[in-house]
Amino acid sequence: MSIDIETARRVAKLARIKVEDDHLPDLAQEFNNILGFIEQLNEVDVEGVEPMTSVTPMRLKRRTDEVTDGGMQDRILANAPDAREGFFAVPKVVE
């Protein structure tokens, strides 16, 4: 795929970037360079390569996915200016 000057102009407009007409050929060439690099990356065989989380090997911490109330209701409500019956109390806004 090749990006021409009109496509570069349209991309600049969609990105809300003001590009002078004399800079459009350079922008189109830069887009073409980026697309060429992406095509190079697509040629790499990654079959059987495990995804990495870091350059150093490490295991992610895992825990069971359980819904809890956090067990801190009293500590959280201690910060509230007004709490009643285990909930935050707020001024009435609807008559």
From TrEMBL:
GO molecular function terms attached to this record: ATP binding; glutaminyl-tRNA synthase (glutamine-hydrolyzing) activity
Pfam families, A to Z: GatC (PF02686)
KW Methyltransferase (keyword) present: no
Keywords: ATP-binding, Ligase, Nucleotide-binding, Protein biosynthesis
Reaction catalysis annotation: L-aspartyl-tRNA(Asn) + L-glutamine + ATP + H2O = L-asparaginyl-tRNA(Asn) + L-glutamate + ADP + phosphate + 2 H(+); L-glutamyl-tRNA(Gln) + L-glutamine + ATP + H2O = L-glutaminyl-tRNA(Gln) + L-glutamate + ADP + phosphate + H(+)
Gene Ontology biological-process annotations: glutaminyl-tRNAGln biosynthesis via transamidation; regulation of translational fidelity; translation
EC numbers: 6.3.5.-
Function, as annotated: Allows the formation of correctly charged Asn-tRNA(Asn) or Gln-tRNA(Gln) through the transamidation of misacylated Asp-tRNA(Asn) or Glu-tRNA(Gln) in organisms which lack either or both of asparaginyl-tRNA or glutaminyl-tRNA synthetases. The reaction takes place in the presence of glutamine and ATP through an activated phospho-Asp-tRNA(Asn) or phospho-Glu-tRNA(Gln).
Subunit structure: Heterotrimer of A, B and C subunits.
Family the entry assigns: Belongs to the GatC family.
Name recorded for this polypeptide: Aspartyl/glutamyl-tRNA(Asn/Gln) amidotransferase subunit C
Lineage: Bacteria, Pseudomonadati, Pseudomonadota, Alphaproteobacteria, Rhodobacterales
